[in-house]
Specification:
- By secondary structure, this protein is an alpha+beta fold.
- Helices cover 39% and strands 13% of the residues.
- It has helices at 28-32, 107-115, 119-128, 144-151, 154-162, 177-184, 187-195, 210-217, 220-228, 244-250, 255-263, 278-284, 288-296, 311-317, 321-336; strands at residues 2-3, 12-16, 21-24, 39-47, 56-61, 65-68, 76-84, 88-89, 96-99.
- The strands form 3 sheets. The protein has a 4-stranded antiparallel β-sheet, with no helix packed on it. A 3-stranded antiparallel β-sheet has the order 2-3-6, with no helix packed on it. The chain has a two-stranded parallel sheet with strand order 1-8.
- Strand 2 and strand 3 form a beta hairpin.
- Helix 4 (144-151) runs parallel beside helix 6 (177-184) and helix 8 runs parallel beside helix 10.
- It is elongated and about 115 Å long.
- The chain starts with a strand and ends with a helix.
């Protein structure tokens, strides 16, 4: 097909965003006073990159405008157009250059600054971010306050709370800043969140309370302070029916944490949804030091689970000889009392 006639005028720039550019062009049939159909072909060249790839066709059709999407923020682009008639086509127009706008501040920017403990950037972002974005989740579903609570960035937490971060905000899993701080063992952060209104009665979707998560983290100073501050010691979760002491017996078997819980009236004979007791859980998980502690505190050894198993049965099943010996000695002691 031969080229003929003058090149058309460049496209006219319409709405520009960080990720898109709208272009408009004249109706060639009106300009040429023709009755035949005309196709418009638009080419694009991205400028400013390390490598200039040259022009590539990004539109071929019959409309008189198009919005080009998927662009990079703050990037310069060049566009040119030609008209393609039934029997000939025009040369390409002179190029028009247009730059996409700067990407507006987002929740992602806030999360990046928070991860780096970049106080200056966080303060600057909070001045321009829409209020609702202070709770925007990151890719893991955590708000900025939840992240700083987990990391123990106390100054950042104070700044976020001063800028209306909700201390009780929960994500889709029911986690909140207090739960995150307790799991991470951040005592000073927990104190701050309590001062700002965080409550011990909060729990995630599984019913795990701050004390359940503090037990998971194993910070005994935190556990001691939480109980002194009024945190309940025997709340059960909603999935297994575990108290914090039962959770401990089922996971890390931390004797120091267990001693604190028991000293503050945690029920050493509590049972879960399967009627497994704290002693049974300690036995089946091989926590010999915890079994020893529970026996010294008077835990019942003859309780039976839903499946008619005792702590001794569990210990024998897993061949925990040290625990088996302790339990058998306890049975002998009971017979002679």
């Amino acid at each position: 097909m031969e080229c003929a006639g003058d090149p058309p005028h460049p496209p006219v720039v319409g709405k520009v965003t960080p990720f898109s550019i709208e272009l408009l062009w004249k109706n060639a049939l009106v300009l040429e006073n023709r009755q035949q159909r005309v196709k418009y072909i638009v080419q694009e060249e991205e400028l400013g990159g390390l490598v200039t790839k040259g022009y590539g066709t990004v539109y071929s059709g019959f409309a008189h405008r198009n919005t080009f999407t998927g662009l990079e923020p703050r990037t310069l682009y060049r566009y040119r157009i030609k008209y393609k008639f039934d029997n000939y086509e025009t040369p390409y127009s002179r190029p028009v250059e247009v730059a996409t706008t700067k990407k507006p501040p987002s929740g992602d920017d806030l999360h990046r600054a928070v991860q780096k403990n970049d106080i200056k950037s966080v303060v600057k972002l909070l001045q321009v971010l829409p209020n609702e974005l202070i709770h925007a989740p990151d890719k893991y579903g955590y708000s900025a306050l939840m992240t700083v609570a987990f990391k123990g960035f106390k100054h950042l937490a104070e700044i976020l709370l001063e800028n209306n971060a909700d201390v009780s905000y929960q994500n889709n899993n029911g986690k909140n800043a207090l739960l995150m701080a307790c799991y991470a063992g951040k005592l000073e952060m927990v104190k701050l969140l309590r001062e700002k209104g965080a409550v011990w009665e909060s729990s995630d979707n599984n019913g795990s309370t701050p004390l359940h998560l503090a037990v998971d983290g194993g910070n005994v100073d935190l556990i001691r302070w939480m109980i002194k501050d009024g945190c309940p010691v025997d709340t059960k979760d909603r999935t297994s029916g575990w108290t914090p002491l039962m959770r401990l017996a089922s996971t890390n078997g931390d004797v120091n944490a267990a001693e604190i819980l028991i000293a503050h009236k945690a029920n050493i004979d509590a049972s879960d949804n399967d009627r497994k007791s704290v002693l049974m859980m300690a036995a089946l998980n091989g926590h010999s030091d915890l079994v020893k502690l529970l026996l010294s505190k008077g835990a019942k050894i003859d309780s039976k689970s839903m499946h008619n198993k005792t702590a001794l049965d569990f210990a024998r099943s897993f061949e925990y000889e040290k625990i088996v010996q302790m339990l058998e000695d306890k049975y002998k002691e009971m017979r002679f009392v």
